[in-house]
Design goal:
mainly beta, 4-stranded antiparallel β-sheet, 0% helix, globular
Length: 125
């Protein structure tokens, strides 16, 4: 069992930056692929970014590529999402996710093993 807790959300002006953190419980953090998803009001949950178990490989949604950076620190059981050049359309609840197999834009959210409770990011224009 893995518990994920997000932090670092809040209100920011367009063009600003935020760094989301995801703290994971358990001793097997390094065995999980980690990812971030988001869900805007009235929309489905969508993939944002994922990072491999080692942290060497990353993938991003086209909408955030070049602006967001996902990373992890296996020694600290932490995953991060650095968000720069934020836009109002980035406003959403952001969820940290962990999976034994893989996380990418094509993987159904229902198949992912663990989720955090989510944290709100609001970008004002």
């Amino acid at each position: 069992q893995v518990q994920l807790v997000e932090s670092g959300g809040g209100l920011v002006q367009a063009g600003g930056s935020l760094r989301l953190s995801c703290a994971a419980s358990g001793r097997t953090f390094g065995s999980y692929v980690m990812g971030w998803f988001r869900q805007a009001p009235g929309k489905e949950r969508e993939f944002v970014a994922a990072v491999s178990r080692s942290g060497r490989f990353t993938s991003y949604a086209d909408s955030v590529k070049g602006r967001f950076t996902i990373s992890r620190d296996n020694a600290k059981n932490m995953a991060y999402l650095q968000m720069n050049s934020l836009k109002p359309e980035d406003t959403a609840v952001y969820y940290c996710a962990a999976d034994h197999d893989y996380i990418d834009s094509g993987r159904s959210a229902q198949l992912i093993d663990y989720w955090g409770k989510g944290i709100l990011v609001t970008v004002s224009s």
